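pinging the channel bc i need a second pair of eyes. not urgent but kinda urgent?? the chain im working w is below, pasted from the shared doc
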Amino acid sequence: MDTYFGAFTIDNAELRPVYDPALRTFCVQLWRDGEIAGSYGLTESFPDAQELVETIDPFLAKNGVRPLELAEMARLYGGLLAAQDGPDFQLFLMRPISQIR
């Protein structure tokens, strides 16, 4: 798996894409200073990675993090698919970035 599509830093926080195979849902953990500071997708249910990415900005704002830029959205989306560890990640790598939204 390409390590580019994993955890990454934005502002003063690290976003870690996670897939729960038991629940078949995606979430993103927000880390600061080596500790988890929040999670988006635990109480909500996101079986679709794209829906999570498209709705994460209010969660980020609430935690003092700026909205994602298009390239960061694509990176997070790819990270979620990579965390799922299925064929969707390989298909994602072949898609133009304009198809992410």
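so The radius of gyration is 13 Å. and The CA atoms of residues 12 and 32 lie 7 Å apart. — does that match what u expected or am i reading it wrong
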